[in-house]
Design goal:
Zincin-like; 4-stranded mixed sheet; 4% strand
């Protein structure tokens, strides 16, 4: 590793410290506003719920910060001491196939840091989530989920690495264009595959039992000219009491999935309000816009990778042998600060889409009171803190804070 390598590390550390400082600012802000909230908050939250949501946020934020700090410390120790470089050389000496080399290196990297973070995840799941009455998962299901998710992650990682390496080997200087298209197509394929084949491995799906609600949902979809194939309910309650709903599939094969916790805690009208919002995302073409943006970003990152991967500079800077999988690893390190810069732009667009979907839902069902009450109930049930720091929102929130969403709805 040379002076340029240490400069790269310094830039990474500056970005990381900035992120940790912002998280600390937000934790202080949450503590301050929970002790001295605005009067507006008490229109929706009682002081008891506000205090409880602040404690829930603080507990989760603290454990996540500890996990991040440990990860960063070990990561930089491994990078500066040469452990990553030694591991890559051992793989190069033992394995000739570049696809297998990449799979071993990246899978080993992910597995090690997943194990490192496991105690924090266990604490959050079985201590924090249980303390706030969210956790319902048993140790057996937790272990089963770990194994299944690890296998799925390995398969997906291996496929993506194989796609990229194959195009690097056969497509010449413009490999990044073909690789970008192929990765996006694979991503779309995964979105189609997940609800049909993958999700049922983890959860049980069955037709919606509430036929009256089913008729109301089909009627709502018909009014919105939004074709759906079927409506399912999922046994989310065996893991958590958090509630949610999601859409899956494309075209006329779309299906709506409702968590059983959502069905238990919300009225039919509230569920229709939630689904109206989700239909709004489809009708406003937010999914397509997101895909286009993802493709542009993947193309951007891959084009930078295409420029860097054959330059001796990056390998000499961090002390790695020059080969495809080490090049991809180095580039992922170098580009991580760029991700931090781009992320706020993506989150801004996501929050904008949420406002647009809220407006669509209001125009569709014409019931502002129910939409607002449903938003409040969802936030309270999930102990979402309603007053995060504005800077933290810009850097981390994909959805606008509750108060902002209500203000926007009231202005329509």
């Amino acid at each position: 590793m040379n002076i340029y390598g240490f400069l790269i590390i310094l830039i990474l550390i500056i970005v990381i410290v900035f992120e940790l400082v912002v998280e600390k600012i937000n934790r202080n802000y949450v503590k301050k506003t929970s002790n001295n909230p605005t009067e507006e908050v008490f229109r929706f939250y009682t002081s008891e719920i506000l205090t409880k949501s602040a404690k829930y946020f603080e507990s989760k934020s603290n454990i996540e910060t500890y996990a991040k700090i440990l990860y960063y410390i070990i990561f930089f120790i491994f990078l500066i001491s040469g452990i990553f470089q030694w591991f890559s050389i051992e793989i190069i000496n033992i394995v000739e196939n570049e696809y297998i080399r990449a799979a071993i290196f990246f899978a080993g990297y992910q597995l090690f840091f997943a194990i490192l973070g496991l105690p924090f995840d266990i604490y959050q799941t079985f201590k924090i989530e249980k303390e706030f009455n969210f956790n319902r998962i048993t140790p057996i299901i937790y272990i089963k989920d770990l194994i299944i998710n690890a296998l799925l992650s390995f398969i997906i990682l291996t496929i993506i690495l194989s796609i990229v390496i194959a195009f690097i080997n056969v497509s010449g200087n413009y490999w990044y264009i073909y690789a970008s298209v192929a990765v996006v197509i694979f991503y779309i394929f995964l979105m189609y595959l997940y609800p049909i084949f993958i999700a049922p491995i983890l959860n049980k799906f069955e037709p919606l039992k509430n036929k009256e609600l089913e008729n109301k949902v089909f009627s709502l979809a018909n009014i919105a000219n939004f074709p759906i194939k079927n409506i399912l309910q999922m046994d989310a309650s065996k893991r958590s009491s958090h509630s949610n709903a999601f859409f899956a599939g494309f075209g006329r094969n779309r299906r709506i999935v409702l968590f059983d916790t959502l069905l238990k805690n919300h009225s039919d009208e509230e569920i229709l309000a939630i689904l109206s919002h989700e239909i709004g995302h489809y009708k406003k073409r937010h999914i397509q816009k997101t895909f286009i943006l993802i493709f542009i970003l993947i193309l951007l990152f891959f084009s930078i990778a295409g420029f860097l991967i054959n330059t001796e500079f990056i390998y000499n800077a961090l002390g790695f042998e020059k080969t495809i999988f080490t090049g991809l690893f180095i580039i992922s390190i170098i580009l991580s600060p760029i991700s931090t810069i781009i992320k706020p732009v993506l989150l801004y667009l996501s929050r904008k889409h949420e406002y647009e979907a809220d407006k669509f839902a209001l125009l569709l069902i014409n019931d502002k009171e129910t939409i607002i009450n449903t938003l409040v109930k969802l936030h309270k049930d999930n102990l979402s803190y309603p007053l995060p720091h504005p800077l933290y929102v810009k850097l981390h929130y994909s959805h606008p804070p509750l108060i902002k969403r209500i203000e926007k709805l009231c202005s329509i």
